[in-house]
Design brief:
heterodimer; A: alpha+beta; D-Maltodextrin-Binding Protein, domain 2; 6-stranded mixed beta sheet; 11% strand; globular; B: mainly alpha
């Protein structure tokens, strides 16, 4: 009898725990979000919180100025600004979402916003603000629209893309002309070969392995049209991996590229072991601080294929107590004037159509940093979000692992792609 | 006359008990439940029976991770049980300057595992200290792929773990050696036993219980290895992710907005079972030996 009671008590404890583990985390209680938001009406007043991502202390004056101007424009509103550190931001947002303490306005890149959209935690700003598509560039708005979900779930804030950066000194030293950088992958391999031969293998031109975005850049469709299946295991993708495998075997890439992260490429470029890297339009400006002797030697050129589009945006919590004020704040921060002022401080690009004609972005001041800014701005016109927003960190990791196996020659490229696609499908299905 | 209230002991243990309930018992029970669900960090989940466990059976990476963890344990267990004992016997002697050696052997324990692993990464890198010196001396023509070969990476992490753990277990043995009666050594010496014989016949039986404790600690920590492999492989789990440990795999599945908490919990249960196994075996062996 005592044993039975103990068993029953354990079962009760387990069931109680089950209640904890399986609770519906959505504060709105919608199992699958997407319920249309009510149109935002009412007076702009009350307290709202604005959460940004690693903007303090570099841009404290700018952001505070924007907030002060907003509070002056709407005297009934008090804005509390929270800035989170760069590391662990996704974990922070996740804990806020799970505990129902998401700030009223939060800086969320599109892939962070998607799971919150699915849980019905974000406001459909297109309902609150029907003119959004007229005022913001299409790529920015599209980034916050998701397959299977009606609406737009963030105001595009600022955009960026990748530019190629070449170490002109190393290229000249090892027989390459920085004025004629590679424009295709085959040219890249050919020039990498020259650099390897002339430097005796001490300096590399190529020092990063491909990611899913590289397949997309090469024209491979990563997902099926309905977004339910990964389709990157194509012969074209296998052919690209084969080219990387051959280049790796030939010693055109550092051997530890297989276990290195992308930061490894930037590090090698920084220390003068690699002559090519990619980065945003503001890369040279950052480099001038970290490595002032290298920065003047860097020459930018456009991305070799379809440039990637990176979007940051501000989303509004559906839980906000002051939706009118929250929407007004998100609009205010992402307004053409405020975005342009931000872009004048750092090489990011406004997501508003009104800023497209600003000569500041299309005219270089003659420095290499200015050239990079112009190249990045021009590239934005054809830039696309190369990696689907449903790709999680775990998927990226599995893909990288399989690509590493293919490039090392341990498994055939097609087999590695098949394994990676199957694993991504499994993770996507949950 | 003192008056004792019935709730006084409960009051005294309450802070610790609450802490244990909230941060140990409750999460453990929750993990047990989640292992049978498809729970996600947002939106909860449903009971899926044994689905996570059947998925584990087909998981190639889990097989690799299990193999890595077992190899890790099998190599670390004898080395980290015996080497610190030998080291303790060496530094136990009261010689001039011996404190310096005791401190030097203990220093790696104080250092952060992550920092140490980063330094080892620099040392073992293709362009690192070891390869650079060996190439300069003409010992090797090509760099040894310490960090890019599956097994070399695993054994590099094992070497790091042993190097870092030596001092910690040495201190445990030093305190145990203090309890081995000096008269036994003297009697054995009078009977003609040399240092090696005395070590096996006096020292080892004298610290057998401590050896058991060290064995259990080593096997548990070896099966739960994370930092060393994670940092040496830059978080990638080595080429093809084949150098992942069980904990790395759990971390991979549990993180992020769409973390697979159900599967990660099932892997945690598996880790618990795998960890308890060697402990029970060691206890049984010890009882038999006693």
């Amino acid at each position: 009898m005592r044993r039975f009671r103990a068993g029953a008590a354990l079962a009760a404890a387990v069931l109680a725990a089950a209640g904890c583990g399986l609770g519906d985390a959505g504060p709105q209680g919608t199992a699958q979000g997407g319920a249309p938001s009510a149109a935002v009406t009412g007076e702009v007043k009350g307290k709202v919180t604005l959460q940004t991502w690693a903007l303090k202390p570099k841009f404290t004056d700018y952001v505070q100025g924007v907030i002060d101007a907003f509070q002056k424009r709407y005297p009934g509103v008090t804005v509390e600004w929270l800035d989170q550190p760069g590391d662990g931001y996704s974990d922070k947002v996740l804990s806020q979402a799970a505990s129902g303490t998401l700030p009223d306005v939060t800086n969320l890149p599109p892939d962070f916003a998607l799971p919150l959209v699915k849980q019905g935690m974000l406001l459909d700003v297109a309902q609150a603000d029907p003119k959004i598509s007229d005022e913001y560039v299409a790529g920015g708005v599209e980034a916050y629209t998701y397959a299977g979900q009606q609406g737009v779930y963030g105001y595009p804030w600022y955009l960026n893309t990748d530019v190629n950066y070449w170490n002109s000194e190393l290229m000249a030293k090892y027989g390459l002309d920085v004025k004629k950088p590679p424009t295709t992958f085959d040219e890249l391999v050919a020039q990498a070969r020259i650099m390897k031969e002339k430097s005796g293998g001490k300096v590399y031109l190529m020092s990063r392995r491909p990611e899913l975005g590289d397949l997309a850049e090469a024209g491979v469709e990563l997902m099926s049209a309905d977004g339910k299946r990964f389709t990157f295991n194509t012969p074209e993708a296998a052919a690209l991996l084969d080219k990387y495998r051959d280049a790796y075997k030939e010693g055109l890439l550092p051997r530890d590229v297989l276990t290195d992260t992308y930061a490894g490429n930037a590090k090698l470029f920084d220390e003068g072991t690699a002559a090519w890297t990619t980065g945003g339009g503001n890369y040279i400006t950052s480099l001038a601080v970290d490595n002032p002797s290298l920065a003047p030697k860097v020459v930018p050129s456009p991305d070799m294929g379809v440039p990637p589009l990176y979007v940051q945006g501000l989303s509004v919590s559906k839980q906000t107590k002051n939706p009118a004020a929250a929407v007004a704040l998100a609009r205010w921060v992402t307004s053409p004037e405020n975005q342009a002022a931000f872009a004048h401080l750092v090489s990011i690009f406004p997501s508003t159509k009104a800023s497209a004609g600003d000569p500041f972005f299309s005219r270089s001041d003659g420095t290499n940093a200015g050239d990079a800014k112009v190249i990045a701005f021009a590239s934005l016109a054809k830039a696309k979000m190369l990696q689907p927003v449903v790709v999680t960190d775990a998927m990226s990791k599995f893909v990288r692992q399989q690509f590493a196996l293919a490039i090392s020659g341990e498994v055939p490229s097609k087999q590695a792609l098949d394994t990676a696609a199957a694993k991504c499908d499994e993770l996507l299905a949950g | 006359m003192t008056h004792r209230r019935w709730f006084t002991p409960w009051l005294l243990v309450a802070p610790a008990a609450v802490w244990l309930l909230v941060f140990n018992v409750w999460p453990s029970l929750n993990t047990l439940v989640l292992a049978f669900t498809n729970a996600k960090p947002l939106g909860g989940g449903h009971f899926t029976g044994l689905a996570n466990f059947s998925r584990a059976l087909d998981d190639d990476q889990l097989a690799d991770a299990l193999l890595n963890s077992v190899v890790f344990m099998l190599v670390c267990l004898p080395l980290l049980t015996m080497l610190p004992l030998l080291l303790a016997v060496l530094v136990e002697k009261r010689l001039p300057g011996i404190t310096f050696f005791r401190t030097a052997f203990y220093t790696p324990v104080v250092a952060s595992a992550v920092v140490v692993a980063i330094i080892w990464g620099w040392v073992l890198d293709d362009r690192g200290l070891v390869n650079g010196l060996a190439q300069r001396l003409g010992v090797i023509a090509e760099p040894v792929p310490f960090l890019t070969d599956r097994w070399l990476l695993l054994f590099s992490a094992i070497s790091l773990t042993i190097w870092k753990g030596l001092g910690y277990y040495m201190i445990i043995y030093l305190s145990a050696l203090g309890n081995v009666r000096r008269e036994l050594h003297e009697a054995a010496a009078v009977d003609g036993a040399g240092p090696v014989r005395r070590f096996w016949s006096v020292t080892v039986p004298g610290v057998r219980n401590t050896m058991l404790l060290v064995s259990v600690l080593v096997s548990v920590s070896a099966l739960r290895v994370f930092s060393e492999l994670y940092v040496l492989s830059n978080g990638t789990g080595g080429p093809g992710g084949r150098d992942m440990s069980l904990v790395m795999l759990i971390q991979l599945y549990s993180r992020g907005f769409t973390g697979h908490l159900g599967y990660a919990s099932a892997l945690s249960l598996l880790l618990l079972v795998v960890t308890i196994g060697p402990m029970l075996l060691l206890l049984r062996l010890s009882r038999k030996a006693a």
